[in-house]
Amino acid sequence: MKNRLISFIFVISIIFTFVIFYKSLDKSSLYEPKSEIKDIPEFTATFLFENKEITSKKIFNQNKFYLLNIWASWCVPCRDEHSLLLNLSNNDQIEIIGLNYKDNTNNAKKFLKELGNPYKQILLDNDGTKAIEWGAFGVPESFLIYKNKVVKKFVGPLNFKSVEEIIKLIK
Amino acid sequence: MKILKFFIIILILFYFSPLKADQNKITKNLRCLVCQGQSVYDSDSEFANSLKLVVKNKIDEGLSEQQIYDFLIEKYGEWILYDPQFNKNTYLLWFLPLLLFLFGGTMVMKKLIKKK
């Protein structure tokens, strides 16, 4: 009786361990938060090209799609996605807003001069706290916004697939 | 001597200031999401440095420790906390060790009674 109980417990624990490990095989080790922010955060920021302050409510106030793109001149993947952003800026249904993350303003301006400016407005985030308000991890990161709500979040540089997804969503 | 005393007092005040203690306590309980196995307190990444600043600003705004955790959970999910909160997803995590302890305890007790 005792031996049977021990072997039963042994088999159960083996099965339990197997199931746990087998289920974890499919899981990605990259962490993505479940809680997507629904409403856009409220904050005030200054512009890159003007020494003027603006609140977030005044930026995303029109009845259209916005893409907030967090970028920096020192960020190499930002260079990769920049041509895609330039193409997307030709679409009238969407307005691209830049959030310049922990950057030197002169370098940021040089970057835009060299590669082109896809942004309608560029806000400054000198200490990275505004990116935290958005729930961002770093640069580059993009948020598709409609009616003051985040529709979709893109972590990392945009690629052809994500741009196609954005175009589909804004149609 | 007076200057030395002054500096010691300043140092003690700085060391025991509630702001510093709170900020360190909170950032030690926050996971640096872009690092491997490091807390925000330990990490020097851009993300961790910004988060430290956000925590400091929130403390200055007068938010309590729990309010800061709630704010960050809303942004990044519960994974950001090292200390899991007690809710329906984590009750097994909190109670399983206790159950195992009770189970082990009864086994030991049973054996002891049998021996007597």
Keywords:
heterodimer; A: alpha/beta; Glutaredoxin; 5-stranded mixed beta sheet; B: 116 residues; Helicase, Ruva Protein, domain 3; 0% strand
Description:
The complex is a heterodimer of chains A (171) and B (116). Chain A is α/β, with parallel strands linked by helices and 171 residues long. Chain A has a single domain (44-170), classed as 3-Layer(aba) Sandwich (Glutaredoxin). Chain A is built from six helices and seven strands. In chain A, helix 4 (105-115) links the parallel strand 4 (94-101) and strand 5. The model of chain A has no long low-confidence stretch (mean pLDDT 89). Chain B has two domains: 2-85, Cytochrome C biogenesis protein (Helicase, Ruva Protein, domain 3, Orthogonal Bundle); 87-116. Chain B contains five helices and no strands. Chain B has helices at 2-16, 18-28, 46-60, 65-76, 91-115. Chain A binds chain B through residues 31, 33-35, 37, 102, 127-129, 131-135, 137-138, and chain B through 33-34, 46-47, 49-51, 53-54, 57, 73-77, 79-80.
CATH topology of the largest domain in chain B: Helicase, Ruva Protein, domain 3
CATH topology of chain A: Glutaredoxin
Instruction: Report how far the terminal alpha carbons of chain A are from each other.
Output: 69 Å
Proportion of residues in helical segments of chain B: 55-70%
Strand percent estimate of chain B? under 5%
Strand content of chain A: 15-25%
E-strand count of chain A: 7
User: Low-confidence spans of chain B: pLDDT under 50, at least 5 residues?
Assistant: none
- Please write the CATH class name of chain A: Alpha Beta
If you average the pLDDT of chain A, what whole number results?
A: 89
Which blocks of ≥5 consecutive residues of chain A have pLDDT under 50? none
- The rounded Rg of chain A comes to 22 Å
Structural class, from helix and strand content of chain B? Answer: mainly alpha
Tell me about the biggest sheet of chain A?
5 strands, mixed
Write the H/E string of chain B, N to C.
HHHHH
Largest sheet of chain B: none
Helix content of chain A: 25-40%
